[in-house]
Amino acid sequence: MATLGRDVVFEDFFPSMVEKLGAEGFLKELSNGFRMLMDEEREVITFESLKKNSVLLGLKDMRDDEVMCMLREGDFDGDGCLNEMEFCVLMFRLSPDLMDISRIWLEETLAKL
Ligand SMILES: [Ca+2]
Q: What keywords sit in the KW lines (predicted)?
């Protein structure tokens, strides 16, 4: 389990997904997740699109302040929305185990060079 802010708790199911899908498959899943949550016209995740589409990802109990908190945590350039890169970085940060796994990938990749 990973916590975001004080109240928002996400089930840390990423490591098992990575095991099942492999690194590339998992990144594709993240990208699909982004597309499910984004505003189709602006191609970024906004408060409205996250609120509307989070139901699709089984996050239907998210309150307004939790949605705001998630946007604030992930928004690096301060435009109030999440682009695909910001979304992926946020997902990685929410999953401490995933950080470990990505470090292992990196080490394996470097070892092959
Ligand atoms: Ca942003």
A: Calcium
Position 88 pLDDT exceeds 60: yes
Stronger pLDDT, 107 or 72, i.e. the higher one: 72
Q: How far apart (Å, rounded) are the C-alpha atoms in residues 108 and 113?
A: 9
The DSSP result for 71-108, as a single string, is HHHH-SSSSSSB-HHHHHHHHHHH-HHHHHHHHHHHHH
Tokens, residue 23:
């690194």
What's the CA-to-centroid distance between 38 and ligand 1, angstroms?
A: 12
> What is the pTM assigned to this prediction?
0.71
CA of 61 from ligand 1 middle (Å) equals 24
- Which domains occur in the chain, in start order? 21-109 (1.10.238.10)
